[in-house]
Model the fold of this input.
Amino acid sequence: MSQQSDVKIGSFGYLGIGVSDMAAWKDFAANVLGLMVAGESSDGATLLRMDEMSRRFMLYPTGEDDVTFYGYEVAGRAQLDTIEDRLAKGDVEVTRASDEEKKARAVVDMIHCKDPSGVRIEIFYGPKVEFEKPFHSARPISGFLTGAQGLGHTVLSAPDIKASRNFYENLLGFLISDYITMEVAPKFSLNLVFMHCNPRHHTLALAPVKTPKKLFHFMLQLNSLDDVGATHDLVKSRGIKLSMDLGKHTNDHMVSFYMKTPSGFDVEYGWGARVIDDATWHVTQHNSGSVWGHKRAG
Ligand SMILES: [Fe+2]
Done:
């Protein structure tokens, strides 16, 4: 039996990050992650591409080294209007984007609000795509798995887990994938909640804990295991700090490793995740994050 599904977010469209070291970020994004540096937005963000979308990452030189906004895509105007209505009825202050904001994000229309952790959430439709300027990586990788599955996934700090679950499940329409309860430090367990809005196993995971940074990590999924292995070699040769070494996750079955971005939070670089079919998926719980590996460095 499938979980209830109404109008919901289609995919994770873009991520805004405030950075302190733009030069280091550009080098890391292009020459380690294999993303494409693609000019600037009208509001001064450095744009990064990973596919036909004109911007998947927007880097602002604001110095907070944390997420500044999440962009979630919906199919069109009807879905945007429905979600705007649902947010307003759920006592969330929601605002239509100005013309300047829409221009900066290169979208047809957008609304924005704050999630219960205080993170700016943007919901949009009609992103600019550039098939005429194909994505080209500076590195010899086979590319990123995006499309209907969106940019990737993120893990967010959600100290008020009840309010955050209400916001993401009941207002934005995310469905539960599964739970992982695991000991992250001696005698300290966390119950992580994994959610999906398309076949990607999770687009969002909530950690019920307050941390210095709101963004734990974001994940990029590669098209080939060789991309992950070759990048792992490169990361080691460049002396970039690994947070967790190669391993395979219990819930999405992703083979991945985690490294530090120039902003101090992690990026997970992975391949081979299983996908969700809502007609057959059932919610499960896990007591381990990994089948094997993912050894913490240091
Ligand atoms: Fe992850």
Remarks:
- Residues 153, 155, 217, 219, 268 surround fe (ii) ion (CB under 6 Å).
- The chain has two domains: 11-125, 147-293.
